[in-house]
Amino acid sequence: MLDWISAAAVAVAAVAALSFYVSWRATRLDRLHTRVETAYAALDAALVRRSAVVLELASTPGLLEPASAVLLADAAVRSRRSHACGGGERELAESSLSRTLRAVVGEPGFRAEVASGGYSRGGADGELLAEVEAAAKRVHLARRFYNDAVASTRAARMSRLVRALRLAGSAPLPEFFEADDEPPSFDTMA
User: Fold this and answer.
1) What spatial distance separates the first Cα and last Cα of the chain, rounded to whole Å?
2) What is the spatial distance between Cα 18 and Cα 3, in angstroms, rounded to a whole number?
3) pLDDT above 70 for 190
């Protein structure tokens, strides 16, 4: 009788430990999915902010050459329109905006020309350029943070236990956001 009681106690302890572990894994997976959603919201906000600041830069009278202003405005508008599309179309539009921004703002001597008033008034435009710099850097960091969260979540979902017990439920597998988000080389602009 004592052997039966100790075997039952061991079985109950093993079931309790396994239940605790499965519950912990499910909670961790839920936190990872929440982290992905939060990181995507931050990335989305950074992308929207960058397109708004670039559009403001492009529409500032006398700051840019007309052709450069049109290119930047077009890329920023396409970025804003792709906001609702998501997926590959948005990644292409954001990459296009990054490349256009580097081509226009990343030219050597651009900042010095703006500061000297060669294109426009200088002072307020310097602040606008600082906003563009900050927005471009935020997009770069937000995308890296989002992709790191996606990688962690995908790795956790590949576990045999998670797949066998379907701990992810019906949550879709998060996708990476692959876009050219390299900010302009601000060092060459000084």
Assistant:
1) 85
2) 22
3) no
CB atoms inside a 10 Å sphere around CB 98 = 23
Q: What is the pLDDT of residue 82?
A: 92
Q: Where are the alpha helices (DSSP H) in 60-85?
A: 66-81
Q: Do residues 173 and 156 touch, judged by C-beta distance below 8 A?
A: no
Q: Which two tokens stand for residue 136?
A: 């471009």
Residue bearing tokens 């710099």 = 133
Q: Is it the case that residue 123 has pLDDT exceeding 80? A: no
Mean pLDDT of the chain: 88
Q: Are 109 and 62 spatial neighbours (Cβ–Cβ below 8 Å)? A: no
What pTM was computed for the model?
Answer: 0.85
Closest CA to 140 of 101, 175, 103, 104: 101
Q: Which two tokens stand for residue 58?
A: 């492009």
